[in-house]
Amino acid sequence: MAMAADERKSRKIMVDRSEGFGERLLGVLLDRAHEMPPQLIAPLVAEEVRRIGGRDISILLQDYEQLVLTPLPGRSLTVGKPEPIDDSPAGTAFLRAKTVEQPQADGIRIFLPLLDGSDQVGVLALTLDTVDDDDRRLLRRLAGLVADMLVTKSSYTDQFFQARRRKTMSVAAEIQWSLLPPLTMITPQVSVAGILEPAYDIAGDSFDYALNDDILHLAVIDAMGHGLDAAALATVAIGAYRHARRADIGLAELYMFMDTAIHRQFGPDHFVTAQMMRLDIGTGHLQWVNAGHPAALLIRDHRVIQALESPGTLPVGFGGDVPQVSKQTLWRGDRVLFFTDGLIEEHEKGGEQFGEERLINFVENIQGEGVREVVRDLSHALMRERRGITTDDATLFLVEWRGGTADHLASLDV
């Protein structure tokens, strides 16, 4: 017994639990996070950065159109002009999710991506006289903690939402943005990214997803009509989808549940087109039900190899029969692009529609790498090609499957 006690004491002594400089710095944020009011995040972050010799601290948040990074106002923060995402060091850090260092006359300007999970919140910018690996490691972890705090505290304030806005937002768009999950999710096995347009006037389009164990669930919807009527219809559709998904029923049953919910609430004259999907991220087995949407595009090695056609199913709310579930096995690296009809049916008065063929041409010529960058670049390229015309809502949602496993992330030994 005495020997066992001595062994336990020896093991305890060998474990170094002392608090180093970096841990103390990050620990202050962690210890205070639960009770800190949102407006004090900025001055505390600025104080932490100053402790390691930093200055000229800015927190830059992505605007709703994903064109610029707008500065968050706050005590002790430097508030300058918005930074363009396409042509700035801050934009590069944002798009590539990596730290960018820019030498200047008075030191090194550092831009760190603010990642909430894998969703991009914005960028933390600051200046140091010099930078070494210890600085980089500490700042990277500080940026991760700041991103988590911004997302958590956004539920308690309007300040972060206001900073992201560059024009007036409609009430319908306000509702739709409040429904959305994070625009991006990136894991070793699967990545997703979505975008809605027009950002400040979206009404009937929406999407939702969830990763439950090895199954990625996804729905893209387009509610009929415009304005608040469409937003209300979309709200019920997404609510019904989440309810059915969390009940863990099959895709056909999920469609029937949504159909009943829409019909009971709005009657026979209202409907929602939708596409619901399930992807086994371990095997690449894809299943989907298409209720009135254009067929998704299967992309392999940057080429569209086929449209994922499926038997016709009535839009949700019309009381259709039990739908047939379509199936496809993906190859590692395959991407699937979902989109609503507002994208390909857009046209000037008297002119031809944008069309699926032109969409495919743009998909195959986009130079971006990650799903976030591809979806954003594709949306902006299509908007330019349509000369900014958006008479209907449009949604793009991209899924990339890589397979394999993520178990190594749960091990401290790797």
From TrEMBL:
Pfam families noted in UniProt: SpoIIE (PF07228)
Species of origin: Frankia canadensis
Keywords, alphabetical: Hydrolase
InterPro entries from the UniProt entry: Bact_Sigma-Reg, PPM-type-like_dom_sf, PPM-type_phosphatase-like_dom
Record domain PPM-type phosphatase: where: 187-401
Designated name of the protein: Protein serine/threonine phosphatase
Record-level Gene Ontology MF annotations: phosphatase activity
Superkingdom field: Bacteria
